[in-house]
Design brief:
The complex is a heterodimer of chains A (222) and B (261). Chain A is built from eight helices and one strand. With 222 residues, chain A is an all-alpha fold. Chain A folds into two domains: 108 residues, no CATH class; 70 residues, no CATH class. The longest helix of chain B is centred in the first third of the chain and has 22 residues. In chain B, 57% of the residues lie in helices and 13% in strands. Chain B is α/β, with parallel strands linked by helices and 261 residues long. Classes of the chains: A mainly alpha (222), B alpha/beta (261). The interface between A and B is large, with 63 and 84 residues. Strand 1 of chain A pairs antiparallel with strand 1 of chain B.
Chain lengths: 222, 261
């Protein structure tokens, strides 16, 4: 029974879905079948929304469980951090309950909007901004000239970076066309085989899923 | 009933069937006992080195597979990530390493728990499995997830940092956090714009479709592994089509227009 629930049923669902997706992407069987498929498709999409919402609740419980456990360890730094996370989570749930009991949607509730505008958005923007320092430190390590390809990389990077700045235009007007050529010719030529390879990789992954040979996502107890 | 006809083109369908048959052919051949040589992927082999290194240093292995909803076109990459996680968890079980797996995909919490638990049990180390420690769901918001993963890598002092899945702007944050804590890093994504960051900053990287091949390698099954040859046939076919297209172009024939018929 365990193997049927853990292995066979998920595999049957995956195989049926793959076959249906391929058939209805490439063929019109008939308008009636098409309409029926659209109805199933809509139902499946609704299920996805429900599953995602339930998964988000599981995620919330998972976060709470982790931080409750961490708090018990009584490490000063961790207790402080876990305390903040737990308080924030409780506040979010409280605001959601208040909003729902008042008959208004959660995202439009005033307290929620305050949290979003004054805490979430600035924190998010700050994290994104920090990227510039990471780009600088990664570039420093990447552009050290250790061999001829690294030298080529450095030269190309300088040309593209200068081509992207007003300083580059000021130094030499020819930098902009060079940057455009690098981005549209060698860069595109390098990316396209990767994109094609991705397609082949996904097709073969689909084949393995279809045949029940890709089972690592279900775990593998032996 | 209406006549059956192709909506997305006969040629793309024929190519899809051809590639699937090619993969199936090699799988059948391997099933018959004939060894199918499959190319090595350096990043895949490096995972074992990383796990062993972590054990020697007494530091945990960190794994992350990305954030966001599962029901998008990124789903195959999450699946590939789970395949690699399976391999990593089995190695952690084999060498007795602690594994911290962070994720931002709420739908995959249960799958990750199961994959890691099964791996530790299979390796005969059930005592190493601690769900709260091993699987950490963080959030499905991009930069909140980025900062949480970065904090986890640094607080846990990860000896090895493995990242396989779809990544966006947070990719560089992760590899730099790993570099700052002196972690051995293996990274892979099929998102073209992030591949250069991983290639430059990680010790080993899976480039594009290699993350899907890694899933087959992780299975340890020769039949599954042989399917990778189907990918290689696809690459060979694309080379042939490119050359034929280049030859026909001066004659005024655009091959691309026939390939979408």
């Amino acid at each position: 029974m365990g193997a049927v629930v853990r292995r066979n049923i998920p595999q049957i669902i995956v195989t049926i879905i793959i076959l249906l997706m391929v058939i209805f992407y490439f063929f019109y069987i008939s308008s009636e079948v098409r309409t029926a498929f659209n109805t199933w498709d809509k139902a499946l999409t609704d299920w996805v929304v429900v599953i995602t919402a339930m998964a988000a609740i599981v995620g919330g419980v998972d976060i709470l469980r982790y931080h409750v456990n961490q708090s018990r360890k009584k490490e000063p730094k961790q207790v402080f951090f876990s305390g903040i996370v737990m308080i924030m989570e409780v506040i979010m749930v409280a605001f959601a309950v208040i909003a729902l009991s008042s008959g208004i949607s959660i995202p439009t509730q005033q307290n929620f909007q305050w949290l979003y505008t004054y805490i979430y958005a600035p924190s998010d923007a700050a994290m994104y901004s920090i990227l510039i320092f990471y780009i600088a430190s990664a570039s420093y390590r990447a552009f050290r000239v250790r061999n001829p390809p690294a030298l080529l990389l450095l030269v190309v990077a300088i040309l593209v970076m200068l081509g992207n700045t007003s300083l580059g235009e000021l130094l030499w007007s020819g930098l902009l066309p060079i940057r455009d050529w690098i981005m549209t010719v060698p860069n595109t030529a390098a990316f396209r085989p990767i994109t094609m390879g991705l397609g082949f990789g996904i097709i073969i992954l689909g084949l393995r899923l279809l045949l029940g040979k890709e089972t690592t996502w279900m775990g593998r107890r032996e | 009933m209406d006549i059956i006809y192709s909506k997305a083109g006969v040629v793309p369908f024929a190519l899809l069937v051809f590639l699937m048959l090619a993969g199936y052919y090699f799988m059948r051949k391997a099933k018959g006992g004939k060894p199918i040589p499959v190319r090595k992927i350096a990043a895949f082999d490096a995972i074992e080195e990383g796990v062993a290194r972590s054990v020697e240093m007494g530091r945990p292995v960190h794994f992350t597979l990305g954030y966001g909803p599962l029901s998008t076109s990124m789903a195959p990459q999450y699946l590939a990530g789970l395949g690699v996680l399976n391999h990593v968890a089995r190695l952690c079980g084999k060498y007795g390493a602690n594994l911290v797996s962070t994720l931002g995909v709420p739908e995959l919490i249960a799958a990750e728990e199961e994959v890691i638990r099964d791996a530790y049990y299979s390796a005969g180390k059930p005592e190493l499995y601690n769900v709260t420690y091993n699987v950490r769901y963080l959030t499905d918001q991009q930069f909140a997830y980025a900062s949480a993963v970065q904090a986890t890598i640094q607080r846990e002092n990860a000896g090895t940092n493995i990242m396989v899945g779809p990544f966006w702007a947070e990719s560089l944050i992760f590899v730099e956090a790993g570099a700052a804590s002196g972690a051995f890093q293996v990274a892979g994504t099929a998102r073209e714009t992030q591949i250069p960051f991983f290639v430059l900053a990680a010790d080993y990287s899976f480039i594009g479709e290699e993350i899907f091949a890694a899933g087959a390698m992780a299975s340890g099954d020769n039949v599954t592994l042989a399917s990778i040859r189907g990918q290689d046939i696809g690459k060979l076919l694309s080379w042939v089509l490119i050359v034929v297209g280049l030859v026909l172009l001066p004659l005024g024939i655009k091959l691309a227009t026939y390939l979408v018929m």
